[in-house]
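Illustration: DUF72 domain-containing protein.
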Amino acid sequence: MKFGKVDHPENIDFTIPPDHPDTPVVLSNSKTGTETKVYVGCAKWNRQDLKNFYPRGTKDELEYYSSQFNCIELNATFYRIFPAEQYEKWRDKTPDGFKFFPKMTNEVSHLRRMNDKVYEIADRYLEVTSLLGDKLGTIFLQMHNNFGPKNWDRVVRFVEYWPKEFPLAMEFRHTDWFNDDKVAQELYHLLEENNISNVLVDTAGRRDLMHMRLTTNEAFIRYVGANHKSDYPRLDDWIERLNSWKAMGLENIHFFVHQNLELESPLLSAYFIEQLNAKLNCNLHIPKTTLPPQKGLFD
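Result:
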């Protein structure tokens, strides 16, 4: 994942900003008293990307991956809408409780940029994606870097069209969505009113995306390691913040681990899950890796 990559991550201040003032309000108003649900996973399951993870002789990568993680950020669906039978195969070969968090097709976000032609595409996408059944988690829609607030009307129409039975998270990358306070407040209000989650992206070169503004009782976090020794302490900081949000009423944690070069994502994930279990009293399975946490390529 090259988005937000920098040549010298040692020069970046990775401090997590303070919460947006409205985040505690959203969590307090939306809590139901149910137990916090936590899903942690990688972006892909293919062997080429996930080094130091698959045992020798592994025949089915998804089957093994889903025995170690409880979810996947399904990036493959960004590039094309697969045949219906493919979603059924993914559903059937994964265990009960496993969740897919699929990325909306780029036909909607990048190629047609939410114009009037995207609704038929979105319907077609949802028709097959819904075949994941109870293993379908939140769908997320990532807009292009140059999709700015001048397209506000398109965003409003799409949000109003979106079928509310499908949980949705949206990721906006143009800086003007966050630099202009009036624009930001209008966006946050729209998402909050329509129960759409506001994606948080923690990457080195775009610290402005750490707006720390939740719009639902879901923390949908895309963490991008810099292939640097700072990757682990950054995860420690997230443990503390998530624990704070849990105390405020957070009930849904969806955390996906990337790297600029996917070399240690399983190791980072295993480390994060172990710390999360200890701090938040979770009971997630700690993925097996061929190297112990914190003993990877950066030492």
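Reading the tokens back as a structure: Residues 9-280 form a domain with the TIM Barrel fold (CATH 3.20.20.410).
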